[in-house]
Amino acid sequence: MGGPSRRGTQVPRDHRSDRRLLEGVRLEGGTVAQSPQPRMTADAGMVTHTTTVKVRWGDTDPAGIVFYPRFYEWYDLGTESMFEALGQPWPEMFPREAIVGLPIVESGSTFMAPIRYGDVVSVRSTVAWVKEKTFRMEHEVTIGTTVCARGFEIRAWVARPADAGTSPRATPIPEHISRLLKARGRSDALDRS
Fold it and tell me: Over 80: is that where the pLDDT of 7 sits?
């Protein structure tokens, strides 16, 4: 009973303006919301790495195109592959550096063209910036010269808790890792399939 449903009276929204609303908004923990639109710049001067992925049947949805969560898996693969190319494979780095991992604290993606079963895609992953406890990865997924998706991840360097009752917390990225991620002139030197 009651009055009319609010759902039925809502005005359609222009989602492009929603992005502008988030600019400069401070999130819990003092972070500033980023625009979901990734910035891919050729002259970022940071490390870039390319990984090649062949699309499998299980990567697609009933419409025959890649199911969107696969893009996030590819972004993760691109980041992990870049660390390995830098001589820091995660299975060795995590215990050596006493971290639980590099959890994603923010991410987003824009999809421009469909990808289908059997396609071979390139995932170009670039370090956009490195701060004290976090770094931003930007990814571009292409088939040949066609850009199919762009995405980003902001990852935190999270130390393993000293004791069982302690929550994991972001800690400063060690200087030797920060230097690797900021290495100028390493773009494309790491590119491989």
Answer: no
Domains in the chain: ranges and CATH: 43-182 (3.10.129.10)
Q: What is the pLDDT of residues 100-117, one digit of tens each?
A: 999 999 999 999 999 999
Contact 175, 161 (CB under 8 A): no
Q: Which residues contact 82 (CB under 8 A, 6 or more apart)?
A: 47, 49, 125, 127, 137, 190
Q: Which amino acid is at 57?
A: W
DSSP 14-82: -HHHHHHHHTTPBPTTSPBPPPSS----TT--S-EEEEEEEPPGGGB-TTSBB-THHHHHHHHHHHHHH
In the prediction, which pLDDT does 94 show? 97
CA pair distance 82, 193, nearest whole angstrom? 11
With beta carbons less than 8 A apart as the criterion, state whether 145 and 68 touch.
no
- Closest alpha carbon to 142 in 67, 52, 68, 15: 52
**Strand 48-54 to strand 146-156: parallel, antiparallel, or no bridges (unpaired)?**
unpaired
